[in-house]
Amino acid sequence: MEGLVKSCDQAMEENNYNEPTQELPFCFIRGSDPRAATCRGKLQSKRCKLNQEINKELRLRAGAENLYKATTNRKLRDTVALELSFVNSNLQLLKEQLAELNSSMEIYQSESHNGVMPMIPLGLKETKEIDFMEAFSDFILEHYSEEPSTYVDAIADITDTRQACKTPSRDALGTALLFRYYNLLYYVERRFIPPDRNIGIFFEWYDSLTGVPSCQRTISFEKACTLFNLGAIYTQIGTRHDRTTADGLNASVDSFLRAAGIFRHIYDTFTNAPSMDLKPQVLDVLVSLMLSQARECLFAKFQLQTEILCEPESMDHSRIIIKLAVLMRRMA
Question: Cβ distance 205 to 125 under 8 Å?
């Protein structure tokens, strides 16, 4: 099984298969237009609104629980208890809506997916905007004793890149954008975020599965969330390919293996996950899911090749399954 998983580092090295990635250091890559009326864009916009509503209800519940613990007035406690029941009901409803949203697979499938088993994509993690300008400018002046105005454009580029990463396109440009921001974080961590000092930047991300927000000031959390979205984009790309052709199936296998490698990389390198979707148990399931979908596409490719070589009446599916099992054992 390990042979099937491409590591995140390998994916980064191999991600130069298209022109946008080769030009990555020299051009700014924009995200997709969030106002575009695409089905996927509408779905992500709805996810964003649900996350905000869940966050609002969680804050209301936290305040009500604190008031319930603090007061000794019986009438007030009864009123707060009633309010808590309403808040919990609203939360349950919102989480059910988010779960239904997460199960919406049809809009991610290829246009020619009729008669083909649908693949399971992942939705993106939502995040709140961050402006690096003030924090980085203060740090440059204090730590490096240089004029911050010299680096205004560079800092703005980091902020704009992060903003664009909120709406990556579902193609090679989208993955190149996320790779670029991840690489920027590598240098940002070493130059602006010392481990022994808080520079006042907090990274807040919403759980892609539950919608619950998590906030940390560690750059490792930002990197893990960026990688999660990179893996999610690969699952959407793999789902989008035309799986009625051998080339499309090969592309789907590659995308799902890249996603599996990224989730495995997060599993191996990121600890103390504050959100459900970054916990080791969930990441382990996601790795297994992506590998299973890659195997399914590989089987479909063998089946397609056999249909081309043989008459449908004489086709022996059991031989295909045996060949696939032998191949998987060799790759494990």
Answer: yes
The pTM of the full predicted model, rounded to 2 decimals, is: 0.77
**pLDDT, position 330:** 67
Of 20-24, 48-52, 268-272, the least confident = 20-24
Q: What is the pLDDT of residue 287?
A: 97
Torsion of CA 294, 296, 302, 303, to 10 degrees: -160
Identify whether residues 22 and 42 lie together within a single domain. Answer: no
Q: Are residues 89 and 10 in the same domain?
A: no
Say yes or no: 128 and 252 in one domain. Answer: yes
- What the block records as the tokens of 83 is 């309010």
**Quick check: 57 and 94 in contact, CB under 8 A?**
yes
Same domain, 91 and 222: no
**Backbone CA torsion sign across 131, 135, 138, 143:** negative
Which of 104, 135, 168 delimits the end of a domain?
A: 104
Query: Residues 59-81: pLDDT tens digits?
Result: 888 888 888 888 888 888 888 88
Question: Residue 231 belongs to what domain range?
Answer: 2-30+105-331
Residue 36 phi, psi dihedral angles, 5° rounding: -65, 135
Q: In the chain, count H helices and then E strands.
A: 11, 2
Element (H, E) at 204: strand 203-206
**pLDDT score at 302:** 86
- The residue among 299, 297, 288 whose CA lies nearest residue 325 is 299
Decide: residue 187, CB within 10 A, 0-12 exposed, 13-18 middle, 19+ buried: exposed
Q: Evaluate whether 306 touches 321 at the Cβ level (below 8 Å).
A: no
pLDDT, residue 40, reads 67
The helix-helix angle for 246-269 and 219-240 (nearest 10°) equals 160
Regarding whether 227 and 325 lie in a shared domain, the answer is yes
